[in-house]
Amino acid sequence: MGHGMLELAETLLSWSCGTIVVIWISIGTLARSVRVERIAHNTMTVLCFLTAVGLVVFDRLGGEFWDSEPMANFLAFILVVMAVSYTHLTLPTICSV
């Protein structure tokens, strides 16, 4: 993969990470509506998994995320943990209310 494509991939992955953080920070506000909260949780979970896969592929193609070689895999791990914890811990609690 060319250098320009790796830069584009890094930019898209950075935006995706930023979007996840914004949704995560906004969950409290979005919780005023159960429907909107579920949409936010589901969107964040899907984005976490997709971004994690993208980060692993990015790393395998030789990219350095934020100029750090291990950063892509570390963030991928954190995103999977976030997605799994929301899927298995938070959503059942919300659905039981």
Overview of the molecule:
It is built from three helices and no strands. It has 97 residues and is mainly alpha-helical. Helices cover 84% and strands 0% of the residues. The protein is elongated, with a radius of gyration of 15 Å. The chain has helices at 3-30, 34-60, 71-96.
Write the layout of secondary structure elements.
Elements: H1 3-30, H2 34-60, H3 71-96
Helix pairs in contact: 1-2, 2-3
Poorly predicted segments = none
Percent helix: over 70%
Mean pLDDT: 86
Strand content: under 5%
The count of helical stretches stands at 3
Query: What distance separates the N and C termini?
Result: 48 Å
**What would you call the shape?**
elongated
- Provide the structure class: mainly alpha
Question: Can you count the beta strands?
Answer: 0
> Using only CA atoms, what is the Rg?
15 Å
Biggest sheet details: none
Write the element-wise H/E pattern from the N-terminal end onward: HHH
